[in-house]
Design brief:
Distance between the termini: 17 Å
Strand content: over 45%
Number of helices: 0
Shape: globular
Structural class: mainly beta
Radius of gyration: 14 Å
Helix content: under 10%
Strand order of the largest sheet: 1-2-3-5-4
Number of strands: 5
Order of helices and strands: EEEEE
Length: 96
């Protein structure tokens, strides 16, 4: 689970097998305790929604919206050869 703000609106592409894949950027900021001290935490991570059953989750994904995302992390290598950690979402909820 990771909460944050939608940084960039989703883009949807259809794969070779006809499965839709939607991508967006999530920005997380928080204060966490580590070794007895508070420290700021910041990251941006690409989130992927794959399959027809995840497409209704897109309704929450306008830039600036605060959401909580659940899923799993995976290492992904892009066409340019660069690798990155990506969050594959299976749950998205708005934070009100």
């Amino acid at each position: 689970m990771l909460s944050g703000q939608v940084h960039r609106a989703p883009k949807t592409l259809t794969g070779i097998n006809g499965v839709p894949h939607s991508y967006f950027l999530l920005e997380h900021r928080s204060m966490q305790r580590e070794a007895g001290h508070k420290r700021p935490v910041y990251c941006k991570i690409q989130v992927v929604l794959s399959g027809e059953d995840t497409q209704p989750l897109l309704r929450y994904l306008e830039p600036g919206c605060n959401i909580t995302v659940g899923g799993f992390l995976a290492w992904q290598q892009g066409r340019n050869g660069q690798s990155r950690l990506v969050l594959h979402a299976d749950m998205i909820e708005p934070i009100c």
